[in-house]
Amino acid sequence: MKNRVIEKGVISFVVPVYNEQDTVRTLFDKIAGVMTQEKIAAYEVVFIDDGSSDNSWQQIETLLDTFPEHVVGVRFRKNFGKAAALRAGFCQAQGGIVFTMDADLQDDPEEIPRFLDKLHEGFDLVSGWKAKRHDPLSKTLPSKLFNKATSLLTGIQLHDFNCGFKAYRRDVLECLDVYGELHRYIPVLADEYGFRIGEIPVRHRPRQYGVSKYGFERYSRGFLDLLTVIAVTRYMQRPAHLFGGVGILSGLFGSASLLYLIILWFLGYRPIGNRPLLLFGILAVILAVQLISLGVIAELSRREHHLPDVEKMIQHKLPFQKTE
Q1: Minimal CB count within 10 Å: which of 27, 29, 70, 323?
Q2: What is the mean pLDDT of the chain?
């Protein structure tokens, strides 16, 4: 990373790389070609080698030596996953506009101007939508079900949460903390801060080199992270509502069970001590007390240590003028 020139209007491209030695140079050439065509001189491509076992890093080093003003290279000691790679790339990127792309050439750099046009319409994050995918049914069907479920549960009307081809304004990235499998839920997290989310259909090219690095297990991990996102976006500022709500339901169930047994006792249906419902009722009431107490403790802890960052909520600030 030498002789790197960063200007005010620089555009950054963050590209996670995992065993893509055959595509790294081609992808850079395609991005550079689009930048030349659009007469954009200030750009950088941030390659993050996510613990590749092939010659991907050697390809990145060659690009660093050849185009030091346009290439940044980051190498992980081992494979940490796409979210970690994106997070590292976001930390390195200097651009006011940041793109994310996959390194396998299935994302077409020719779409970049359309993303820029959409951003200029006033959107803060533009997500690609692979309307026509060149993947087997074993990948497209779970993806469609996953996207539909995510859209219904989060209320974000996107067709393709899994698409890695996205464009962001710098303000969006400064509000996000990406880990686990949360990279696919970046639009959900951004929406929580009030950013405008847009979507455009993009071409999805067939894979020419290598094999897909993702299997069915990523969807199971993704759904677990979806629950995390829902909890964070809906209850981070009010944890007592989450724990208290579940606690109240548990308390109602336990109280109703015990009341039912008490009525049976008065009606002469004895004994009731050997009924499993008695144990369930008592446990439900105890659980309710614990959950409600936990909610109160979480609320006190949040107010003490996790007050919302007001700066992340502000879109514009006007000078304060004192009135006479």
Answers
A1: 323
A2: 82
Sorted by sequence, the CB contacts under 8 Å of residue 306 that are 6+ apart come out as: 236
Number of Cβ within a 10 Å radius of residue 210: 16
Strands 166-169 and 97-100, how do they pair? antiparallel
- What angle in degrees, to the nearest 10, is found between the helix axes of 112-120 and 24-37? 50
Tokens, residue 47: 């390659």
> Which residues, 6+ apart, have CB-to-CB distance to 132 below 8 Å?
203, 204
Do residues 131 and 201 lie in contact, with contact meaning Cβ atoms separated by under 8 Å? yes
Tokens of 83: 């979210």
The structure tokens listed for 121 are 């319409």
The conformation of residue 205, written as its DSSP 8-state character, comes to P
Q: Which tens digit of pLDDT belongs to each residue from 21-75? A: 999 999 999 999 999 999 999 999 999 999 999 999 999 999 999 999 999 999 9
- Side-chain half-sphere CA neighbours of 136 within 13 A: 6
Whether the bond into 187 is cis, omega within 30 of 0? no
- Residues with Cβ < 8 Å from 281, sequence gap 6 or more? 253, 254, 255, 256, 257, 258, 261
